[in-house]
Specification:
alpha/beta
């Protein structure tokens, strides 16, 4: 009997590929760091589910556009569309490699450098990406059910560890309506990988009836994710959940079989997640090869994995793929993808409905500003470069150090109505301080440019620095490469001129503008967070002393009296 290779996969293989590709990245990344949490996250998932269902049905009708984008869109537009989708392959693949380089040494192979883990993962996942869809379908058919069953079993085993008191803490917290739109948009962006489905659907048997399978896959993923958002606070508690970057990992550590059959059963769960991450990375490489061929960009069999590896391990000034991936996905790729697909849908129609097209473009463009403050013009914002905080025992005082814009730009006169060099606001807590700022200042407060943070000695000595860090980590635009110092009076230090520049630039220059042998090692916010999560303690910070309108910086171990 002669066997014919038709390179097609069944609906069951399609469903299991979806589960294998999305499950581990969702469970590891979405519940952590406040991306999705609690009831707000569950409501956001339920709200996004109907829209995702309609979206995949629309993608089924767009398969011809993906089959030959150069022919359907034109040589220039088709190649640009291919490059745009390749950007998702590059950045998401780099993100997954960076994630594996961090987690695998901690969970499975301690002592192995993360860069070697990333290199091996890229090599393994790059083999066979050019050999068609059927091989991946067979792999998913064999392992997809095992992975799904293992994750469900883990969740069932953890149910016995949940506590009613933890759930009551979550119920006592009011449902934050302001977090629901953010959770809704986060879920939509997390499913951005669905935009590559048309590259797969052409190889699915009975493509016209695959909609039910796609809907089942999305429903299963959303159901598991929603269940995990309820299970995590019930087992770990709100305080522990808020401090864990990957809360599913401590959850796995306690999910043992009855009778304590294996002492480290969490290694098995970690193996499930690792396999899903590797399958997701291999899928990205496969799609990248498909995109380059159909957009007539050559063959991406080898250079795509190499580019993804280099992007995943490269850091510039301490900033890596993890620092900007979320911004790129939510503010650039997702809205751009919707605009591109809307262009594909409208292109070629004989009757062009201009009003509908304009309305669609306006709605999709609004995605750029969801969950943020993008509608505030730059000239209507205030950009502090330094932040000071202290306490008098009752409340807090926050001091914002402003750059001297006229002098920094070469102007001699201070602009009328310009910002004060130092703005000090006092309140019982940081939420009250924020409200007082909103009531008293005409400009939006943009803290994304802060370079240094000064902690008052009173704040450090009485332990209320933990309240400050708890508030600070809720600010999504605060970078973790900010330097921290301690001083007796932060307001007095920030009021100094700093030789014509802001105090933020001045202190940063003291650390960075030296020869390598003369540079001092500053303490960053990321380092402070790490020790706080691990030991509940504050790192020893460099000390600033202000004397005679000048400042001196003493690093740990130096004599402050000399």
């Amino acid at each position: 009997m002669k066997f014919t290779e038709n390179n097609r996969i069944s609906h069951r293989q399609l469903y299991r590929q979806m589960v294998l590709t999305f499950l581990a990245p969702f469970l590891l990344c979405l519940p952590g760091e406040g991306a999705l949490a609690g009831r707000e996250g569950v409501v956001g998932i339920l709200a996004a589910l109907p829209l995702l269902a309609g979206y995949v049905l629309l993608l089924m009708r767009m398969v011809p556009w993906y089959t030959d984008p150069v022919k359907n869109l034109g040589p220039v537009q088709g190649r640009l569309a291919g490059l745009f989708f390749l950007s998702y392959v590059f950045l998401t693949g780099a993100y997954l490699l960076d994630l594996m380089a961090e987690l695998i040494p901690e969970m499975l192979v301690p002592g192995v450098p993360g860069i070697w883990i990333a290199f091996l993962a890229a090599c393994v996942c790059s083999f066979g990406t050019h050999r068609g869809m059927q091989r991946r379908g067979r792999m998913a058919e064999v392992s997809g059910g095992l992975l799904l069953g293992g994750i469900v079993l883990m969740m069932v085993l953890c149910l016995g560890q949940s506590r009613i008191s933890y759930l009551q803490e979550m119920q006592e917290t009011a449902l934050a309506a302001g977090d629901i739109p953010g959770s809704f948009y986060t879920v939509l962006c997390a499913f951005s990988g669905l935009s590559l489905l048309p590259f797969m659907l052409k190889d699915v048997e009975k493509r016209g009836t695959a909609g039910k399978t796609l809907l089942l896959g999305i429903t299963a993923l959303c159901g598991i994710l929603a269940g995990m958002l309820l299970l995590l606070p019930a087992v770990l508690g709100q305080e522990r959940l808020a401090s864990e970057r990957y809360p599913v990992l401590p959850l796995m550590a306690g999910a043992d079989l009855p009778g304590n059959i294996l002492a480290r059963f969490d290694v098995l769960w970690a193996g499930f997640l690792l396999y899903s991450l590797l399958f997701a990375l291999g899928s990205l490489f496969h799609y990248g090869h498909q995109i380059t061929e159909r957009a007539r960009l050559g063959s991406g069999r080898w250079w795509i994995p190499a580019a993804v590896f280099l992007l995943g391990v490269t850091e510039s000034g301490g900033t890596g793929i993890r620092d900007y991936y979320g911004f790129w996905l939510t503010r650039i790729f997702f809205p751009g993808m919707l605009l591109l697909q809307a262009y594909m849908a409208f292109r070629g129609r004989r009757k062009w409905n201009r009003k509908a097209a304009c309305a669609c473009a306006v709605i999709l463009s609004g995605c750029l500003f969801l969950g943020g403050c993008g509608a505030v013009e730059p000239e209507k914002r205030m950009y502090p470069l330094a932040l000071g905080v202290n306490t008098d025992g009752q409340g807090f005082r926050v001091i914002y150090g402003m750059p001297d814009l006229p002098r920094a730009t070469g102007q001699e006169k201070q602009e009328e109505g310009g910002s004060l060099p130092v703005l000090s606001i006092q309140g019982a807590d940081f939420q009250e301080i924020q409200k007082r700022y909103d009531r008293s200042q005409e400009k939006y407060l943009d803290i994304s440019h802060i370079q240094v943070i000064l902690l008052g000695n009173a704040l450090v000595e009485n332990g209320r620095w933990q309240e400050f860090l708890s508030w600070l980590k809720q600010e999504p635009f605060m970078g973790e490469n900010v330097y921290l110092f301690s001083t007796e009076d932060p307001e007095a230090v920030l009021a100094l001129d700093g030789e014509g520049s802001s105090m933020g630039e001045f202190l940063t220059g003291l650390l960075e503008n030296r020869l390598p042998g003369q540079q001092k090692e500053g303490v960053t916010l990321r380092q402070v967070y790490h020790l706080w999560y691990q030991e509940g303690a504050l790192m020893h910070l460099p000390v600033i002393k202000a004397e005679n309108d000048s400042i001196q910086v003493f690093f740990p171990g130096e004599n402050k009296d000399g």
